[in-house]
Specification:
It is a single chain. The protein is of the alpha/beta class. The chain folds into two domains: 137 residues, Vaccinia Virus protein VP39 (Rossmann fold, 3-Layer(aba) Sandwich); 51 residues, no CATH class. The chain contains six helices and seven strands. Strands 3-2-1-4-5 form a five-stranded parallel sheet. A two-stranded antiparallel ribbon has the order 6-7. Helix 4 links the parallel strand 2 and strand 3. Helix 2 runs parallel beside helix 3.
Amino acid sequence: MPQESSWFADGDAYEHYVGRWSRRVGVMFLDWFALPSGLKWVDVGCGTGALPKTILARTSPIAVTGIEPSEGFLQKARESINDDRVDFKSGNTLSMPVKDAEADVSVARLVLNFVPDKEAALQKFRRVVQPGGTIAAYVWDYSDEMQFMRYFWNAVTELFTASYLLYGSKSSHNSTNIPVLNARGNARRQSAIMAQ
């Protein structure tokens, strides 16, 4: 797995980890506020293009502008979406290359947790939306301990450990005890067979 700094620059790595789930959440997100077709959208922190792709499929927009600071993510988004209604631009929550009141809707998914000045970011979202427009966002659920992430990392720990034991060792069929975290984060010992 790439280190975090490269992970946030690598569109393919992000797509395999979070991007594929973003499409599923994006459908629910758009259904939640059920806006009419024919609108202009700005997606702040568009990542690899999961939400713009969902907006195109479900809302028949006039235009979608995806704003993203990661060039790797922008490249992946541009490669995956070929539609004249979409324009991907380099920028971030505090520096959006969008004119005042240019959009009907401004959305952000999984972005505000990473923004130090959320109030300033929301003011920028407001700047790009026409009066009476819509601003919507969703974030990681840190207050409820992000249970889905706990399940994910527990599975990764178990799979990585098993994979390492099966393929990462030069020893052949040696038994060893290894620490593995269970769902409550408690270490336990697990016996496993190592093979080449």
